[in-house]
Amino acid sequence: MAQEVKNDIKKALQVNTIPLIAIMTAVTTVLTMLVKIPTPIRGYLNLSDTMIYFSAYAFGPWVGGIIGGLGPALSDLISGYPQWAIFTFVIDGLQAVLVGLLVKKFNPANIIIGSVIAGVWKVFGYFIAGGILSGFGPALGEIAGNSFQMVVGLIVGFALFTAIRQAYPPLVRLGNLGIKAGE
After folding, report:
1. How far apart are CA 60 and CA 133, in angstroms?
2. Which of 77, 94, 105, 135 is most buried by its number of CB atoms within 10 A?
3. Residue 46, Cα to own-chain centre: how many angstroms?
4. CA–CA separation, 21 vs 161, rounded Å?
């Protein structure tokens, strides 16, 4: 199992994927910064989940994890929320890794179940991070907003992936959803 994971990571992180990671990290950073709804615990709701889900579906767990962790964390740093950056990197990065590991076949049930499990991880992770940064009382109030952000991200990320995989069939060869174009 450990050797298989090591081989998967090595396969995913080849020289030709570095520009892809850089571009997608930049897109994720910008999209995360595009819509910012401030929250009471000095954080903000955003569209990061859209790109976290899309990246995990399209590029698999390891590339998706790098994009999903770096993009939103850079947004935190640039946007004046540096206290959240390390939490965001770990929580969002693991969310993408979980989605990539759980979703192995392109069918709506698989995608929804795997994405919701990863989303629950994110909501829990931000509850813990918010509790550390601002106390668990205020963090409890963030659960609804983070859950809403996760659901919106899942819907938009899935729709985006579906549209792009039909318009650009080679995309499916990059991730772990080993499907033929048009399926």
Report:
1. 31
2. 94
3. 12
4. 16
